[in-house]
Amino acid sequence: MISICDTVWPRRSTDTAQGLKQTIENAQSLNNIPNDENHIRREYRASLRQFVRIMEGIRGRLSEASNKYGAKERGFGSHIKYLSNYLDRDRCTEILESCHNEIGNALGFLPDRWNLEEEEGKLIFLPTSDIHH
Question: How confident is the model at residue 133, as a pLDDT?
């Protein structure tokens, strides 16, 4: 999620952007997520697919928000862009908060870690810790 890191967000949105960045880093640090979903129990497959869809959607929304509200470089053009979006600055914070909440909700249905174990004669990844809550 490079757009969260390389964007200079409006001053009102910087705390929200920092919180979202931390949430994204936490999501990316999920341990041992299996590459082959056939090794994941059915009840976790849907949650994992949903999580991936949410992260893909958020990537697009962050890119749009970054392009609209952020200043990627400090030059004359970025200051004009920043000033032109000043009146709509609360919308930027709303978008970042929405992304943060969506990731948090999706993480709530996934385990922190996966462990490879044998079940019914085949290797399968099972959660080794409680679900995020």
Answer: 46
